[in-house]
Amino acid sequence: MSNPLVDMQKPEVIFCIGTNMTECHPVAATGLKKAIARGAKLIVADPRRIGLAELSHLYLPLRVGSDTALLLGMAHVIAREGLIDEDFIEKRTTGFDEFFEHISQWTPEWAETITGVPAKDIETAAMWYGKADKGAIYYTLGITEHICGVENVQSLCNIALMTGNVGREGTGINPMRGQNNIQGAGDSGALPNNYPGFQSVTDPKYQAKFKAEYGREVDLEKGITKVTALELCGESIHAMLIDGENTLLSDPDREHCEHALRSLDHLVVVDIFLTETAELADVVLPATAWGETDGVCTNTERRVQRVRTAVSPPGVAKPDWWIICEIAQRLGFEGFDYHEPKPIFNELCRVSPIYAGLDWDRIEKGEYQWPVPHKGHPGTPMLHEEEFVNGRGIFSNVHYRDPAETISDEFPVWLTTGRRLASYHTRTQTGRAQGIDYLLPEESLEVNPADIERWELTDGEWCKMSSARGSINIKVKAKNRSPRGTVFASFSFADVPVNLLTGSGYDPVTHTAELKVCPVRLEPL
Amino acid sequence: MTREMEIDGIKVTFSEGETILEIAQHHQNEIPTLCYDPRLEPFGGCRLCIVELEGARNPVASCTTKATPGMVVRTTTDTIEAYRKTLLEMVISENREVDVSPLRGYAAGELADLRDKYTIDGTRMTGAKSGTRKTDENPFILRDYELCISCYRCVRVCAEQEGDHAINVMNRGFHTQITTEFDGLLKDSACTFCGQCIQTCPTGALGDKKALRAADAVTDAAPDKTRTICPYCGVGCSVDILTKDDKIVGIHPAMDGPANQGALCVKGQFAYDFVQHPDRLKTPLVRGADGELHEATWDEALNKAADGFRKVHAEHGRHSVYGIASGRAPSEAAYLMQKFIRVGFGTNYIDNCSRA
After folding, report:
1. What distance in Å separates the CA atoms of residue A328 and residue B339, rounded to the nearest whole number?
2. Scanning every residue of chain A, which has its alpha carbon at the shortest distance from the alpha carbon of B244?
């Protein structure tokens, strides 16, 4: 997030797109509810009439995968109506003239033909956001899990830059991270393109730094992403070490994924349960869980916080860091002689400029949001206040692209996927928490009641849902929050493996899977 | 402009908009409260925070009275303390019990603490009890309204903090009852089971059923608290894990948590018991010649793990080994995962689970 969570109570106009925040980040959503109670206007763009849409003053029910078109239409209106922040554009950005030219063709009427959202509502959204002194954007995987995830994010940046809604209280471009330490995992350098602290692996300066730090030559080019690695399993990838991820259920195209993992010569999985993924491993190593491990996590607002041990682990389970060190030392790797987490975190801080002002003792109370470039620095709750990391904000002349697969006679229904309030990911945790079943006993496919009739399905009965990759059986549930022609299911339940169907395509830059769009066919059973 | 007033004979400064209660609290002056939760709008319902204000005919509620320059306030005169004691005696006389398990909720002991402070033995006032315990089979929230004192903290936290408006007040006076629309079950209301009502309740009328169930199995020692961060989404809410005899019995939201200021959701509040679930992996497992996974010692498993990487590396080169770090484990694990790949194999063949 560019802005801190406390800022969520402060915007005048809130634009939420591709975020089911009341279910997926409920505590963050309380901030927005307070802003609304104070008089802020909420615009929600989402294919489904989610909880946030019910709270909104303007709801834009766009067709799945059409976000870029909606945002181009909004940019067009903002420019046409003269709602741009000329001073900000002049001082802080580059490429506006070309962009201005570019968006003149993308009228809201055109956007309506792509998104299905009435042009007048696109205009209203653009006017509200464009006129607001404090306009804030919040988004989640509904923006990024598309083949055009990069263009979607760039489109959001475009409207924020045009209107100067960056670098001030109650503004910003704010992605909500979905896992407790997914931010920290990236910060720590578990990325094929970055060393710790987002230092590029292709920059000679950092290559030299880490050569000295780690005492060996490291490839000068980027590594491959997990998506590519899974594609190459059995061909050039023959061994994997997976820590705490149920890849088989969480990733798209389960059959492909299972085939990939099975074709490895050697798979080592570190986890707290014998997950579907761990069942395929040659060696399964039991890790300590949350509440049993001391360490550091970084949240969605870049806040670096301590997690602490409260109870003993079961059996002989050990912390992840200990397990990795033991394997590394058996392989003769240097630099894995740690006996506690503190020096590991301190090393991360030492090699990462964004953490340079932190150490284990300083983060005791969780006061710091990175970057914290030196000791004594107060941290950076808000990014981009004075300038952008790369100097000037860049306008991107994006074009709308259709999803990897679009509906056809064979697969005439849009399936979109996500999470639900009471379950989390593949339910390895929530599925084992007493009482959660009372709220969410099973998975079901949310179908508009009119569609149930049209497709000759029965509410509460099972149906067969097929995509180009496979079929699953799933119970039908009549829900008005699914629009006509679009159905929704979560990927949480192992007995309804929705990710057997998904995986039509990937964003070419980030390799993020298009999990939000999958044409399917529904048949009664 | 400096704003100054006097509390119990001491001159203090304050900012515009501050209430007498807030100013007193800044100066470590303890005024008793029951309907007050610093996260919520002042309510002025319980009247325990009354103070004497010079020039005012009657005592005023300090939680709702904004300070003005020159005010002279007395917080603990004999008269005020006598009023407070009487108010507490009346409140307590309507309740079935006052001593409740601390596991009912974060604030569950507030009424009992005040009873002890004012040495109330419960004999001066006796009579009818108010409130009816509600049967609600949900596994999380106990609705024991026989202990309700109508402070409305639950109603207000649900509306103001959560924005859910799931519960409200039915009837008036002695027959006041907190309920959902149509007096039904929480499950059929707008309730999201975030548990905030439990945690703000000052009497334990709303209780954490899960914690109470868990506590049945262990000693009645007071729970230990360990401050940590919720294991679910990326918001990073601070929580206190409650433990007894090395068993997690419940979760309290951290009221001073920088990301959540006391708020939690159903997962953070109630979905913690996966940690001590019998399904947890307790020993390393190694695939045997029979194709099945078998329990192994750490040495056996770690040797086999290392041997496999060594063999693949030798046969297929550096670019045949790949690492996937967790978005759930702490950063030390992710840092060492990338170090393992970069130091061990000299590649950038490392990723985390953020792409799916």
Report:
1. 9
2. A311
Type of residue numbered A445: L
Tell me which residues of chain A, numbers 282 to 301, contact chain B at a CB-CB cutoff of 8 Å: 282-287, 289-301
Same domain for A59 and A164, yes or no, is yes
Helix (H, G, I), strand (E, B), or coil: what is residue B39?
A: coil
| pLDDT per position as a tens digit, A209-242 | 999 999 999 999 999 999 999 999 999 999 999 9
Are residues A451 and A429 part of one domain?
yes
Domain containing residue A478: CATH number: 2.40.40.20
Q: Which of residues 379 through 418 in chain A touch B, CB cutoff 8 A?
A: none
User: What is the rounded CA–CA span in Å between residue B74 and residue B70?
Assistant: 13
pLDDT of residue B1: 66
- The total of structural domains in chain A comes to 3
At the second CATH level, the architecture of B88-270 is 2-Layer Sandwich (3.30)
Q: Name the helix (H) or strand (E) containing B85.
A: helix B78-93
Same domain for A22 and A136? yes
Domain with CATH 3.10.20.740 in chain B: 3-76
* Judgement on whether residues A123 and A190 belong to the same structural domain of the protein: no
Give the strand order in the sheet containing A283-286. Answer: B293-295, B285-287, A283-286, A266-271, A239-243, B321-325, B350-352
Residue B273 and residue B249 in contact, taking contact as beta carbons nearer than 8 Å: no
CATH number at B3-76: 3.10.20.740
Q: How much is the mean pLDDT over chain A?
A: 96
Taking only the tens place, the pLDDT of each residue in A282-295 is 999 999 999 999 99
Q: How confident is the model at residue A326 (pLDDT cuts 50, 70, 90)?
A: very high
The parent domain of residue A71 ranges over 5-176
Give the pLDDT score at B127.
83
Q: State both tokens at B17.
A: 């908009």
DSSP element (H, E) containing A350: helix A341-351
**Given a cut of 70, is residue A246 above it in pLDDT?**
yes
Contact between residue A147 and residue A514 where contact means Cβ atoms under 8 Å apart: yes
For residue A325, the chain B residues in CB contact (below 8 A) are 336
Asked if B332 and A348 come within 8 Å (Cβ–Cβ), the reply is: yes
Provide the token pair at A489.
């299911």
My answer on whether A20 and A32 are in the same domain is: yes
Kindly state whether residues A481 and A508 are assigned to the same domain: yes
- Rg for chain B (alpha carbons), in Å? 27
ipTM of the complex: 0.95
How do residues A59-71 score in pLDDT, each as one tens digit?
999 999 999 999 9
3-class DSSP assignment, residue B284: coil
Please say whether the beta carbons of B309 and A239 come within 8 A.
Answer: yes
A122-150: average pLDDT:
97
pLDDT in tens, A255-274: 899 999 999 999 999 999 99
- Looking at residue B133, its pLDDT comes to 86
- Give the pLDDT mean for A474-489: 97
Could you give the C-alpha distances from A400 to A103, A150, A161, A466, B204, in angstroms and in order?
12, 11, 19, 27, 56
Q: Where are the alpha helices (DSSP H) in A43-138?
A: 51-55, 67-80, 86-92, 96-103, 108-115, 119-131
In the prediction, which pLDDT does A225 show?
A: 95
Q: Which of A176, A194, A283, A364 to mutate to test the interface with B (most CBs of B within 10 A)?
A: A283
A156 and A56 within one domain:
yes
> Which amino acid is present at A249?
L
Backbone phi, psi, residue A295, to 5°: 175, -160
Looking at residue A399, what is its pLDDT?
Answer: 97
**A495 within some domain:** yes
CA nearest to A300 within chain B = B234
**pLDDT at res. A425:** 86
Whether residue A154 sits in one domain with residue A38: yes
Bond into A118 cis (ω within 30): no
Residue ranges of chain B whose pLDDT lies below 50? none
3-state secondary structure A437-453: HHHCCCCCEEECHHHHH
